[in-house]
């Protein structure tokens, strides 16, 4: 599942998506082609672009706390998409991805948004156990930038396990660096590529 954060811009967990992935968004009876705009391997989130989706963009909520009322998209016994109501059980931190994680019994479909009472996005369902990670606020700002279509596709590479940081080649596995350079040429750093998008 994916949801809109701006006109023609959606967020979804990456899974095995890459910038070269061919994607079709299925909104019966329509099938809309989409492309991957950003792959953030560190967070496990992807930003997609697709024209003509027609979904209302969702705003981001401020940080949630334990006990807050939340809603998650689920499919009921009749096969209909519904919102399940629950509360945030815990707010934790996942050190491997360096992100805040919201835990709720209102887990829903992988990739579905966890919403607050005003319909704003608290996080994205990262698994089927009720864990949600927040959408980077910078993504929403960039997605709503009127010049966004003139900016390049970027893959944000996670550091190789136990080595360096995502700031330089020393933190990127040889396989990922080779794939990155094949797609984009040899960058000075990931930050340089991200800076070009601004």
What order do the helices and strands come in, and which of them pair?
Elements: E1 3-6, E2 9-13, E3 23-27, E4 30-40, E5 45-49, E6 69-75, E7 81-94, E8 99-104, E9 113-115, E10 121-125, E11 131-133, H1 137-143, E12 154-156, H2 174-184, H3 190-197
Parallel strand pairs: 4-12
Antiparallel strand pairs: 1-2, 2-5, 3-4, 4-5, 6-7, 6-9, 7-8, 8-11, 9-10, 10-11
How does this model look, in words?
With 198 residues, the chain is mostly beta strands. It has two domains: 1-59 and 136-198, Thrombin, subunit H (Beta Barrel); 69-134, Thrombin, subunit H (Beta Barrel). The chain contains three helices and twelve strands. Strands 1, 2, 3, 4, 5 and 12 form a six-stranded mixed β-sheet that branches. The protein has a six-stranded antiparallel beta barrel with strand order 6-7-8-11-10-9. A hairpin with a 5-residue loop joins strand 6 (69-75) and strand 7. The longest helix has 11 residues, at 174-184.
């Amino acid at each position: 599942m994916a949801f809109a954060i701006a006109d023609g811009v959606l967020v979804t967990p990456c899974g095995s998506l890459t910038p070269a992935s061919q994607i079709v968004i299925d909104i019966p009876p329509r099938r809309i082609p989409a492309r991957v705009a950003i792959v953030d391997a560190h967070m496990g989130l992807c930003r997609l672009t697709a024209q003509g989706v027609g979904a209302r963009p969702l705003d981001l909520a401020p940080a949630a706390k334990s006990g807050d009322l939340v809603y998650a998209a689920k499919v009921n016994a009749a096969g209909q998409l519904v919102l399940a109501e629950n509360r945030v059980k815990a707010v934790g931190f996942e050190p491997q991805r360096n992100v805040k994680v919201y835990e709720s019994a209102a887990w829903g479909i992988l990739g579905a948004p966890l919403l607050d009472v005003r319909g704003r996005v608290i996080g994205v369902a990262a698994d089927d156990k009720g864990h949600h990670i927040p959408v980077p606020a910078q993504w929403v700002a960039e997605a709503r930038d009127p010049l966004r279509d003139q900016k390049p596709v970027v893959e944000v590479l996670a550091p190789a396990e136990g080595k360096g940081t995502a700031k330089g080649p020393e933190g990127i596995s040889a396989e990922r660096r080779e794939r990155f350079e094949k797609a984009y040429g040899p960058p000075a750093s990931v930050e340089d590529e991200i800076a070009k998008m601004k």
